[in-house]
Amino acid sequence: MKQLKIIILFLGIFMFFSCSIQKEQVGNYENLKGKTITYEKGKNIYLFWDQVQLQNIEKDIKIKDYEKTTRRNVFDNIIYYGTFGVVSFYTVTIKTKEKKPRN
Fold first, then answer.
1. Does residue 73 form part of some domain?
2. For the whole prediction, is pTM greater than 0.90?
3. pLDDT at res. 33
4. Contacts for 23 with CB less than 8 Å, ≥ 6 apart
């Protein structure tokens, strides 16, 4: 019985601190040359187990070619598991490549 409690506790801690990462390349980002810079960083906010989106930082992007990285870090997991999935945060980073000026 004690071993079962330890296993359940270990799995709970593992799920609590688990992180998910998703990268998505938009446009011709892969073929661009130049130094990678962070264009924007923020939070996407969802309700009801990611069914209703309240905030999306990607909608105000004015560039065509970028890489979007979506992750759920420790703070985001605390909110997600603490509210049983009713409120959900994702940390989003938008990166682009700096264009070199032509001489």
1. yes
2. no
3. 79
4. 67, 68, 69, 70
